[in-house]
Structures are given as C-alpha cells and as structure tokens.
Amino acid sequence: MADFRLLIHSARQIVQVVNNNKLVCKGREMNQLAILEDNNGCSIVVDCQGNIHAIGLDVEIKERFSDAQFQEVIDATGMCIVPGFVDGHTHAIWEGDRVHEFAMKLAGATYMEVHQAGGGIMFTVDHVRKAPEETLLKNFKANAHKMLEAGTTLAECKSGYGLDMGADIGATAISHLEHVSDEGISAMVQSGTIGVVLPTTAYILRLEPPPTRKMIDAGMGVALGSDFNPNAHCLAMPVVMHLACVLQKISLNEALVAATINAAASLRKSETHGSIEVGKVADLLIIDAPRWEHIIYQLGSHQHVISHVIKGGKIVHQKRK
Ligand SMILES: [Zn+2]
Predict the structure, then answer these.
(1) In angstroms, what is the span from residue 298 Cα to ligand 1's centroid?
(2) Both 229 and 93 in a single domain?
(3) Sign of dihedral through CA atoms 163, 164, 165, 168?
(4) For the domain that residue 60 is a member of, what is the CATH number?
(5) H-helix segments, the chain
C-alpha cells in the first residue's frame, strides 16, 4: 500500500491562482496570481483520497517525504502546473447538431429565417425530447470526455431544452451578460454577484461582446463559461480564455482566474475546487511549456500544450507522445 496517490516533481511553475483560501477574486484581485516558481523545481503531493496534501519546492518535499511511497510519480521537468479549468456555463446534454444553420447564418440568414427553416433552439428542443435517455447520456459522456481532454475538470451543466438533468447554479452568479447596463453592473457589484461571461456566444452570433473589462474595473468578480451547445460548438476553455483576452480586453491572469477559482465560486464549489491549495481536490493540468501562459497564447493548440489532465489525483488524460 502506497502512502500517497501521486507526486509531481520538478515543475517550473505551480500556478496556485490563490494561496490564502480566498473563495472568489474581485476587481483588481483578478490580476494577481499566486505562483510558486523555482528553477530547481516545485512539487505537489496528493493523498489517497485525491486531495492536495503538500505543495513546495522540490528540496523541501524530498526531505519531508523521503520515506513515503507514491502510487504514481510524474516528472514535470520544464513544465508548469495549473488548476483544472472550471467551465461556468454549458448546455452539454443535447442531440442533433446544427451545422447546416451555421452555413445558413454565414450566408446571411437572420435568426428568424433560420427559425422559419426549422432551425434554432426549437430544433434542439425537438431533437432532445425525441431522443432516448441512453442517447442523451451517451452524448453527454462523449462531450464530458472531450471537455476533460481540453482541460476542464469541473463544469456547470444546465438542463435547458425541456429537460431536467444537471445542477442549478442559483443566484450567486448570472450568465449571458451580453446586454448588461452600467446600472446592472453596479447592482451586481453591490450584491457580490459573479458575472459568468460567455465569449464564444457573442463571437459566433457576431454580437457586441459583454463589457467584461468594465465589470472587472467596477470591482466585480467575473467567471468564464463555454456556453457549449449546438449553436456555439466550443467546449475548450483555452479558446474561451483566448477570446476573452483579445475581444474583451482582459489580461491573461484575469482569464485564468475567471476560468478557475471564480468559475468554481459561481458554482459554489470554490471551497474545494478552482485553485491549488492544501486540502483542495487535486484537479490539475500539467502544461508542456516553460510558462503557464502558453495554454492561452497557443490558440487552437491546447491538445499539444496540455500534457496531463489529473482529476482527484488520477491521470484521466495524457497527451499522445
Ligand atoms: Zn447558455
């Protein structure tokens, strides 16, 4: 019997995101990342329950755990560790893709024209209602696996489409903020509501993006979600973060905070998820790059940048060599 489930050593950076048990980052706090960094390597130890047991420099961890047995050991030389991404808003249970509509919209069709041609949300509602439960479950499992491969280890999953599966997020967070006013922002700052921003939706529908910069500058906590659904067919949080940075003018740090601790907070899960801190669930990504920012910078290459996806201290996905 091993004493511990996992040891990851020799990492260049451990991007903890927060290291003081903070449950959500608001306003300027979003631009400050807690990073443990050392050219001689940093380590994480995961216990047999899948929780983070220790974080430190290689030298400290080596000494402290010199007699310990680990089920698995990962050498992360030259690589970085970030928390698994949290997707704050998806519709991952559906049936019937809408690729034909995408072509229609690019050819200039309006939402009403798509609707009249039998497309739009009613197309999905209809397909979902007619689909056997096993089909929906099979689709969901396939989508969840794709999410894992793209680094998402926790996701909100809205029922929608006339179904009642998945969890409700309640009033700690509001999503789809494409049309939020200045008064709306002030009200959310006052109430401490987290704004869940969905960059792919505005991008695909060519809408004015949500005023994310304004929300953060006003002191709000912002989270990110993919809004993955047959209309916005993107489940990769690295792409979502990239779009948020470029189109909504947020920094790389803010994007990572929004896709980890703040998205976890929007799901009321930030006590256990969304940062690399002792006691939290070991949902981790190993980034095959000398700096963590490569996961956002290398647009469309996340499958090459993510070396390992670890959930509860277990390797659930590994990049093909
Ligand atoms: Zn949505």
Answers:
(1) 26
(2) yes
(3) positive
(4) 2.30.40.10
(5) 58-64, 99-106, 111-116, 121-130, 133-149, 182-191, 199-204, 212-217, 237-248, 252-258, 261-266, 294-297, 302-305
Residue 227 Cα to ligand 1 middle (Å): 5
Q: Collapse the DSSP code of 295 into the 3-class scheme (helix H, G, I; strand E, B; otherwise coil) and give the result.
A: helix
Domain with 21 in it: 4-84+275-318
Q: Are residues 192 and 260 in the same domain?
A: yes
Task: Tell me the CATH number at 151.
Answer: 3.20.20.140
Query: Are both 132 and 223 inside the same structural domain?
Result: yes
C-alpha 197 – ligand 1 centre gap (Å) = 10
Claim to verify: residue 130 and residue 258 sit in the same structural domain? yes
How far apart CA 50 and CA 312 sit, in angstroms, is 4
Of residues 176 and 223, more confidently modeled: 223
Residues 243 and 300 in one domain: no
Residues 171 and 74 in one domain: no
146 and 15 housed in the same domain: no
C-alpha 110 to ligand 1 mean position (Å)? 20
Is residue 233 located within the same domain as residue 153? yes
Q: What angle do CA 31, 243, 291 make, to 5 degrees?
A: 55
134 alpha carbon – ligand 1 mean position (Å): 23
Query: 74-78, 124-128, 221-225 — which is least confidently predicted?
Result: 124-128
Report the 10 Å Cβ neighbour count for 271.
12
Q: Using the mean position of ligand 1's atoms as its centre, give its distance from the Cα of residue 233 in Å.
A: 12
Pick from 9, 10, 14: which is nearest to 291 by CA? Answer: 14
The values of phi and psi at residue 71, to 5°, are -65, -40
Close Cβ partners of 226 (under 8 Å, ≥ 6 residues apart): 87, 89, 90, 152, 198, 200, 232, 234, 235, 236, 237, 240
Q: How many domains does the chain have?
A: 2
pLDDT at 96: 85
CA distance 181 to 122: 29
Whether the predicted pLDDT of 159 surpasses 80: no
Let me know: does 240 contact 295? Beta carbons within 8 Å. no
CB atoms inside a 10 Å sphere around CB 135: 13
